[in-house]
Amino acid sequence: MGTISICNGKYHTHIVSTFLDLNQVFFFLCFFMKKIYEKFMENKKQLIANSILFAGISSDQLSELADISHVKNYGRGETVFFEGDVADGFYMVIEGKVKIFKLSTEGREQILHIFGKGEPFGEVAVFQDSPFPANATVLGKGKLLFFPGPEFIRLVNANPSIALNMLAMFSMRLRRFATQIEHLSLKEVPGRLASHLLYLSKEQQNRDRVTLDIPKGQLASLLGTSPETLSRIFTKMNEEGTIRLHGKVISLLDRERLEAF
C-alpha cells in the first residue's frame, strides 16, 4: 500500500504556508498585547502623576510606582477594608469616591473623610505597621489603585522626594481634619452646612453655585447630624433666600450670610 509524503508537492507548500500564517498571527497578537500593556502602564503613570502624593517626581519613579501598583474594581457600596483589618498596603482613587468612617457601638455612622479621584487613603496605617483605624467603603462603583506596603516603603527609602510629598499631604489633611473637628464641636448644624457649602465653592472654583458630590444622607453623616435635620436646614435656607436648591446643584445667593454662620 502506498504512502503520501507531505514533504512533496503541494502538501509541503500548504504546511509551510500555514506555519507562516500562524507565526504572523502570533507575532501580531504579541505586538497588539504589548501595545495594550504599554498604554495601560502609561495611563497608570499619568493617574499617579496627577495625585498630590506623587506630584513632581521623576518619570523613572512613576514607572516604579506603576510597576508595583494594582488596579482593583469595586461594586456599588462595596467595602474596601474594615476597621481592624491588617494594613497590607494603601489605596488611591481612580474613579468614584470612597468614604472613611467609624461606627459607634449603637451602629451610628460618623464619616471622617470622603476621598475622590487622585486622593490616596490608608497610608498612615502602613507606615505605623498597625491595623486600619476606620472603615472604607466605595460610594457607587469605584476603581482604586492599590500599593503594597513593603514595596512602597522600599521605594520611599530610595526616593526621599516621595517622603517629602507625603509630609506635605499629611500636613494638608491635618489642617482639614482640625477644621472638621472645630466645626463639629463648636458650630451648630446650620453653621457646619454653611462651611461645607463654602468649602465646595472653593474646591469647585465657583462662587455662585456648587454641586453636591455625595448623597445628602452621606452629607448628613459627614456633618454629624441626621438626614431629617439636614433636610429641614436646607429647606429653611432655601426659604430664607440664602441658597436656592436645584437637586444636587445649589446656588449660593447670600455668601455673606453663609460666612456669618
- Structural class category: alpha+beta
User: How many separate helices?
Assistant: 9
Low-confidence stretches: 1-7
Rounded mean pLDDT is 81
Q: In angstroms, what is the radius of gyration?
A: 27 Å
Beta-strand segment tally: 9
**End-to-end gap:** 104 Å
Main beta sheet: strand number and arrangement? 6 strands, antiparallel
Topology pattern, helix = H, strand = E: HHEEEEEHEHHHEHHEEH
Question: Would you give an account of this structure?
Answer:
By secondary structure, this protein is α+β, with helices and mostly antiparallel strands. 52% of the residues lie in helices and 22% in strands. The strands form 2 sheets. Strands 1, 2, 3, 4, 5 and 6 form a 6-stranded antiparallel beta sheet that branches. It has a 3-stranded antiparallel beta sheet with strand order 7-9-8. The N terminus is likely disordered.
Topology summary:
Elements: H1 9-49, H2 59-68, E1 70-74, E2 79-81, E3 89-103, E4 109-115, E5 120-121, H3 123-128, E6 135-148, H4 149-158, H5 160-186, H6 189-203, E7 209-211, H7 216-222, H8 227-240, E8 243-246, E9 249-252, H9 255-260
Offer a quick outline of the entry:
It is built from 9 helices and 9 strands.
